[in-house]
Amino acid sequence: MTVTRRFDLLLYAITEKRYSRGRSLIELMEPCLKGGASVVQLRDKDASTRELVSEAIELRNLTRAHSALFIINDRVDVTLVVSADGVHLGSDDMEPALARNLLGPDKIIGKTVRNADEAGEAELQGVDYVSAGSIFKSETKDAPVIGLGALENICKATNLPVVAIGGIKLENLESIFARGASGVAVAKELLDFPDIEERAKNLRTVIDKLNSETAGKQK
User: Fold this and answer.
1) Residue 44 assigned to a binding site
2) Is there a binding annotation on residue 112?
3) Residue 117 annotated as binding?
4) Is 85 one of the annotated binding-site residues?
5) Which of this chain's residues are annotated to bind 4-amino-2-methyl-5-(diphosphooxymethyl)pyrimidine (predicted)?
């Protein structure tokens, strides 16, 4: 029997340089962590491997200082080199089983899914969590919208934690957690603000309240 590992995935921050407003990567992500982000994912499709490793080392040190998880998008090799906490795999990335063989049993592996069947398959492949989306239309990434119904079906189909992604906003958090999500992944809704720390605090306050209410109903 596979034991599902549990992590604090409630507020999952994803790097996105288009919202930098001249701020460095650390200036973007440290306020997220101070405001309550529990995970940082480094996603930089345009960076060279050398640049990505440099960014990853900076963020690894930052997340460790804040006792947060550090996940790297796509790149198993960079995850190994910088000793990140884990990797997030898309549909066209390395198979989870191969990633697990390379990373070992302790690293976290996440997988993007779009429906209940993919969620069930991901669980069988030994991943630690799935991200489901795009739940709503995303301004950050061009991805098909699957909607709240699909999110609920995914949450019911797997014992894994499910992180909702895509078009997440303060005003739709309640509908997301009502469907069984374990967290939300955000970029624009967190970074595209002058005061990122205050925005993170606002999001985390609402998320903690909704998560507590959901947990209470499940008892």
Assistant:
1) yes
2) yes
3) no
4) no
5) 41-45, 73, 112, 141
How far does CA 173 lie from the centroid of its chain? 15
79 annotated to bind ligand: no
Task: Tell me whether residue 73 is annotated as binding.
Answer: yes
pLDDT tens, 30-51?
Answer: 999 999 999 999 999 999 999 9
Q: Which two tokens stand for residue 138?
A: 């995303």
Say whether 95 counts as a known binding-site residue.
Answer: no
**34 annotated ligand-binding residue:** no
Instruction: Give residue limits of the domains in the chain.
Output: 11-218
Residues 52 and 36 sit within 8 Å (Cβ to Cβ): no
- Fill in the amino acid letter for 71: I
* 61 annotated ligand binder: no
Quote the pTM value. 0.95
Q: How far apart are CA 153 and CA 132, in angstroms?
A: 10
Tens-place pLDDT, residues 5-24? 789 999 999 999 999 999 99
CATH fold group of domain 11-218: TIM Barrel (3.20.20)
